[in-house]
Amino acid sequence: MGEKENDSLATEEQVDAVMQFANGLNQFFRTGTWTPYTQNVNLLSLNNSPVKATYKDLVDALSKSLSNAKDIQGYSEFMAVFDTIYSKTINYYKSILAFDLTWDCVNAKKEDYQTKEYEEDVRRLRKFLTNFDYKREFNEKVIPALVNTGIFYGWFRDSSGTINDNPLDDDDVTIKRKSKYSLQIMPQDRCKLTGYWENGLLYDFDMSYFLNPTVDIRLYDPSFIKKSKEVIDKSSIKGLQYVPSSQLDSRNGTYALWTQTSPKDGAVVFKFNEGNFNIIPPFANLMKPTFNNTNIHKLQMDKNIASAWAILYGNIGLLDKEKSGQKPNQTAFTPEALSKFMELVQGALQSIMKTVALPLEDTRFGQFKDSNADMETNALQTSAGQGAYGSSLIYNTNTTNQSVVLNGVIADYNIMRKLYPQFASMLGYYANKKTKKFKFEFEFDGSNFPFEREYRRKAINELASVGITLPSQYWASAYGYKPHMFQRALEEAHYGNFQDVLTPLANMYQTNGAQTKETENGRPKKDVTEQSDSASRSQDYN
Q1: What is the DSSP letter of 531?
Q2: Which whole-number Å values give the CA distances from 490 to 134, 285, 446, 472, in the listed order?
Q3: Which of 66-70, 96-100, 324-328, 532-536: highest mean pLDDT?
Q4: What confidence score (pLDDT) does residue 281 get?
């Protein structure tokens, strides 16, 4: 056999891997090694990989972050359980985004808004949003992963099968049951970033995951069964060569047991920082100062215990005629007598109700004095302040300046709101698959800070006061409602004769007669959005 022919043969390891994968495919057609216990383990391993570390391990990993990204992710998950301040910081950032949604039609002319086609596409859009609980899916699945590890690999699932381009029509006979949409968490350690497209990032998947006999491939999108067969089908190797530049329709190439995935099938990926492809937890640098919080706590406890102990001491007197102390045994009393007195003192000190005479001169009470009693408090405040601008919400720093707190939480919100465009692009891509003629652009906004939402409410009401009335989805966003639910509520109130049973509320500022407590001394009291502080008023929320 020639040298070139020998080079073209697969190695023993490659043949063994293919055979294992082929044998693993048998589970598609039989009952696997499945139990509630193994299934629970599989779920836990999807996105949980904490790694215990020493301070040295942490510093070494951070100093070489490019090659240690996976370890740093594991350290972050560990610290989220191990350290209170790190955990509070992570949970604080998780809770900021409100995902208030608005949309605009990008290809409609003014004459289109009254047409049946536009009305039907809006109905399809609202139907899609009704069947996809985006606030829950994004807040409960994606945001925690982004804050903890910096990345989330998922799959957009259609309960009726693989996501397709079919518009949502009630009379569509091809849809046997109403589709529900959700984000499935993929095994995070089996996914790898490999590219990007106009709406986000792309990743490949390690199909050897399904070699595990405890994993049921049918729990994943139906396209994976097809991909599994393609990986081991020698007749299709030429047509499935790994080409990084493949278009979305052709992202089915394979390399070894890795396969490309496509957003057209449902593959989605979110990253905290889209400016680079290094997957480092966004708050990785906070782990260093918080790592020593446990040691500082132990030192503080040791000092507290030491402060609870004391020493009673004094000088043993000498005989009057021998003050020099140059002769032995010239003390006022013998060591044996002193020992008896010390036993009495020790016994008496065990109860504050006993007294005893101690024949010592210049008796003193010595106790440990902590010159840095606030050591732990200061350390916790420092680490909390390094983790968030609004650190007073994480750890009580006794800050009384309201403008400082407001500007701090606004700065934290601006860190998180940078994620909104990724979610808007993903939502728009799949929502526009379900419309026919008109296409829509989505935008997320808003935080869960009450003052920020009040600011948006005041802004939209001020526009309305000068005759600029925006569509209902903008009002829904400002008040924290889902736009499709808000619209249905308006329709029910209008067509359900709600006005007939409602007693109109009088405008307190236009009522003649008695004034409210807030207005009896002049204009209404200022709320938090009307701060006189120039820094607060100049802050750009939009």
Answers
A1: -
A2: 21, 48, 22, 9
A3: 96-100
A4: 92
